[in-house]
Amino acid sequence: MPSRLFKKPALAAGFIALLGVCSQALAHNPMCECTAVEDGQIRCTGGFSDGSGAPGVTLDVIGYDETILVPGKLGADSTLTFKRPDSEFYVLFDAGPGHIVEIDQADIEAP
């Protein structure tokens, strides 16, 4: 037996559109920032656009030849500090499918 709510196609389309808007409002995007700090070190901080942190999330430093130079995970404070590699690299913040951020070495600013 069809539901009374969806007897009118326009009402059904409006309801479906509203569901799409609500799901987008609940989404949170990954964020990661890396900054050069003292003694040739780099500190990366990860989190999400809803303000939540990302402790335990994978953050790897990868060479341009795709070798992992520094395997890592963010600490309890959602940061990871590592020695700047001598070779060219990028940072990969990987919180799962659709939640990946890449930061090239050229985009890492000095303090």
UniProtKB/TrEMBL annotation:
Keywords: Signal. Residues 1-27 form the signal peptide. This is Secreted protein. It comes from Pseudomonas deceptionensis.
